Amino acid sequence: MSWVAPGFALLRQDGETCSCAQLQARALALPWSQHWTHATIACHAREHLIVAAFAAWAHDAIAILPPNLRPATLAADPDAHGVVLHDGELGVGIDVRGLVAATATPREPGPPRVRLSTSGTTGAPVAIDKAPEQLLREAAVLVQTLGLDAASRLLCTVPSHHIYGLLLGVIAPAHAGATVHGGTPLQPEAILAALQRHQLDVLVTTPAQLRACAVLPTGAFASLRRVVSSGAPLPDDVATMVRQQLGVCVTEILGSSETGGLAWRVHDRVAPPLRPLPGVAIEVDDDGRLHVDAPWLPADAPRPMPTADRVERVADGFVHRGRIDDVIKVAGIRVTLGEVVARALAIPGVRDAHALRVAAHDGRGDAIALLLASELDAAAIRSALSPHLDAVVLPRRIACVPALPRDGAGKLDRSTALALLGGEAGGVVPQLLHADADGARAIASIEATLPCFAGHFPDRPVLPGVMVLELVLATVARAWPQLGALRSLPRAKFTRTIAPGDRVAVSLRRTGARVDFTVERDGEVCATGTLACDASREPGAATVE
User: Fold this and answer.
1) Residue range 273-301: average pLDDT?
2) Which fold, 431-533?
3) How many other CB atoms are found less than 10 A from the CB of residue 61?
4) pLDDT tens across 48-72, in order?
5) What is the DSSP track for 187-199?
6) % of residues, the chain, pLDDT over 90
7) CA dist 32 → 3, 37, 58, 71, 520 (Å)
8) In terms of Cα–Cα distance, which of 376, 334, 341 is closest to 356?
9) What residues are paired with 114 via a beta bridge?
10) C-alpha span between 100 and 116 (Å, rounded)
11) Which of 4, 156, 319, 484 could be bridged to 174 by S-S, CB 3.0 to 4.6 A?
């Protein structure tokens, strides 16, 4: 039996409807090589993405959703066993816009197989495979929970190369037999125009886009049956604005790329609790970390599976308190990045904010960097924050730009944020080559211009041991952001010096929250040791040789 309901259709911006059979006929016209095992889908338009994905799935291939559609990203995997399917001028792969429907009788769409990348907000993007049963089980629950059916007419403003956009903009509507709009408007006026022109009744969007919709007239969304928000936590003030001004209660879904959807709530009042989605079981440990079991978890995942979310149980569900890696220590003082962002957004003139953990180049552990959309300067921001935050907690670096370059899901990847802030604190930036549950490897170039070389030592510059440790910690943060900050350093040994211009390799082996590290230069070991992160409760005095 097909996973696509008969009535599924795509509504073009000109008002013409394209049926599932027509989409599949175009997909089967793609000249497919029997050697291709996967296809990178680089389509901006939802119609073209559906055709490309249907083509891959018809041949039992994996549809790869890249972290972004930049040419450099798409050229990073020149695999002879795959193909790039696109709707632009890439110069490689196949442009699906020119496909003419096959004359043969269309086959049913094959089972959806997807490989996606995490957003990169806390480290390098990580590839995740989603099996058909995972996607279809979650889609079925979303259809049930959101009340989607054959009469639903849906607009999804999230690009479909994000898993949230694919699930709620393609797979769930197809499973329900709904009609989905082919556009992905981002500006509030364009969103409203599409809703009104085509009499759409479901809007799938993000918190950032909902915040921007505050410029719309009173009652702009009153005719909608459902507004869905996901991709990031929905602030209470935005939910209240949509309810009171725009005329609809937002349905929020909590989840992640790794776990899929976990919980939901309808913002019919201020700060309602989250409730697990049907079929999801939750546990909360003593540290407030959320553990989950769901029918769409990976087959090899631990059950219950630990998440990166901090929560608090309440009578009717639970309250989300941020991420585990959102809690950091600055000079021994605990602070959450979410609190810093909330304080920044309360400053008049600040339109958007993003805080992130960086290494303190003075060796004191963590520091906070703050990126803002504002015309204010750093001094004004720091002055406005100082009555609310301890002096040592105040962001070390603040950058103000006209707008934060968030992606279509409202995310801001770490590398982009760091680039706008001027790079990593301390200047040693590891390039992550590999990371899995057990180990990781990175390389880094030691630039002669690093400030730590000044006076260390005048006649023979040497990279300080504390900078070597910060390089290791930065690599750990990229590979496993959920481990949190350094808790203890049971062992560290420095055997050879590292000089300006050297290129070093960092190798990590992980056991729970303990990480063994080796730093090498040209095959010679320069440093080894073991560190324990905040997720560990194992005591240990630091010993440095």
Assistant:
1) 93
2) Thiol Ester Dehydrase; Chain A (3.10.129)
3) 20
4) 999 999 999 999 999 999 877 776 6
5) SHHHHHHHHHHTT
6) 48
7) 23, 10, 10, 22, 45
8) 341
9) 63, 130
10) 28
11) 4
Could you read off the pLDDT of 67-104 as tens digits, one per residue? 777 766 676 555 667 899 998 877 678 999 988 887 66
Position 276 scores a pLDDT of 97
Distance CA 200, CA 179 (A): 9
> How many whole angstroms separate alpha carbon 151 and alpha carbon 139?
17
Cα-based angle 427, 428, 433 (whole degrees, multiple of 5): 140
Nearest to 130 by CA among 109, 118, 112, 114: 114
Query: Per CATH, which fold does 1-132 belong to?
Result: Rossmann fold (3.40.50)
| C-alpha closest to that of 397 among 355, 347, 431, 430 | 355
Max mean pLDDT range (82-86, 212-216, 363-367)? 212-216
The total number of residues written for the chain in this structure: 545
Instruction: Parse the chain into domains and list their residue ranges.
Output: 1-132, 185-329, 331-421, 431-533
Angle between helices 378-385 and 337-345 (to 10 degrees): 110
Tokens encoding 152? 């639903």
Given a contact cutoff of 8 angstroms between Cβ atoms, the answer to whether 275 and 263 are in contact is yes
pLDDT over threshold 80, residue 419: no
Q: Which fold has domain 185-329?
A: Rossmann fold (3.40.50)
> Which tokens in the block code for residue 217?
């007239």
pLDDT at 135 over 90: yes
* Weakest mean pLDDT among 5-14, 440-449, 476-485: 476-485
Q: Tell me the two tokens of residue 251.
A: 């349905």
Residue 361 has pLDDT above 70, yes or no: no
**Positions of E strands within 174-326:** 179-181, 202-205, 226-229, 250-256, 260-266, 275-276, 281-284, 289-293, 305-314, 317-323
Q: Give the pLDDT score at 171.
A: 96
Beta pairing partners, 312: 319
Please check whether the two domains, 185-329 and 331-421, share a CATH topology.
no
Sign of the C-alpha dihedral computed for residues 379, 381, 386 and 390 taken in this order: negative
Residue 323: is its pLDDT beyond 90?
no
Superfamily of domain 331-421: ANL, C-terminal domain (3.30.300.30)
Q: Where are the beta strands (DSSP E) in 241-393?
A: 250-256, 260-266, 275-276, 281-284, 289-293, 305-314, 317-323, 327-330, 333-336, 350-359, 366-374
pLDDT digits (tens, 9 = 90+) for 378-418: 889 989 998 888 877 888 788 888 888 887 677 777 767 77
| Distance from C-alpha of 119 to C-alpha of 407, rounded to nearest angstrom | 9
- Cβ-based burial of 376 (10 A; exposed 0-12, middle 13-18, buried ≥19): middle
CB of 154 closer than 8 Å to CB of 183: no
